[in-house]
Predict the 3D structure of the following.
Amino acid sequence: MTGTTDETALIAALRRGDERVFADLVDQHTAAMLRVARGYVPSHEIAEEVVQETWIALVKGVAKFEGRSSLRTWLFAVMINIAKARGIRERRDADAAMAAFTGGTVDPERFRDAGDEFPGHWKADQEPEPFPDTPEGSALGAELMAVARAELDKLPDRQRIVVTLRDMLGFDSAEVCVLLDISVANQRVLLHRGRAALREVLENYLRENG
Amino acid sequence: MDCNELVELVTAYLDDGLESEDRARFDAHLLSCDGCWNYLEQFRVTIRTVGGIRAEQIDPIYRSRLLNAFRDGPASAGGNGV
């Protein structure tokens, strides 16, 4: 993954004050940082401040940056710390609500009930069907991305943050657990719920428009 | 393993996070169930689709504010001194 690329040259350029290198980094990461920051703070404006503080922290800290994590992981770790300090939203209630929620991620109506010969299996008319092929650059692929992006924005904060980090940005499970200070199991539940919601929306979209 | 159990284990399966016994039951179920096979594939397509979402462009005014922070920062101390 990207964590293993050698960023020595990049760091050296930043230390020299190479503005083009900095601008490239800003273009590469800022939108994603804003997206994640927004999950911690109550407004887009505060998210912008948090992300700006993060870039300033990089400018101030680059002389001492040791490269023990990738620059991107460092940016997100620092950003999340700043966001948490600024965040007004109370997280504990949300956590408790999540732990208490034991429902499935697929509509139970799609499965045969206890009296059936095959309880818990798909009803005949409810079996998932293959999604059509969407080669890169295809019109349908672009439509699905737009649908997925809209649904991603609607997910509960913590699910959105985990799905964004894992599936949109490609952080691995261990990195996400450290960044968000959550257990592997907790991360997996959040990721699974978020993905399942996105899958359902894509399935419905394809049924209506496919 | 029933279909309604399998659908809750897909993320653990894809992350290689299932105990070997559960993984074997998962794989065995897939072989005999088109619905779950398709469900798993739908999940994979969903993940790929999210992976294809590109971050939006940032507001140019905000962007220049960030670049100014760099120009004014300590990293430019050795530069041409703005």
